[in-house]
User: Fold this.
Amino acid sequence: QVQLVESGGGLVPPGGSLRLSCAASVSIFRLYKIGWYRQAPGNQRELVATITNSGITNAADFVKGRFTISRDNAKNTIYLQMNSLQPEDTAVYYCNAHDTVTLRNYWGQGTQVTVGS
Assistant:
């Protein structure tokens, strides 16, 4: 069983920044791929960015140049630095990971990001 705990969401004005964190309950090296998805009301959940245990990153076109995914191996935590946030970035952001031991996919509980005045 893998637990993922997100934090760092909140309300930010347009053009502002937030940093999301996702702490895993197991070694991050055990997780083949870990990353962020988001879901806005009425929309499907969509990929934001992922990072593999070898450090290969992937990001959706709409976040390139604004969001950066990174990880702290010692803390078993990944981060999503979000800059130049816009109202269309408003969504619940979920952490997701694929475990190489159980071969299962895990989701965190989500953290709300709201961009507005």
Remarks:
- The chain is about 0% helix and 55% strand.
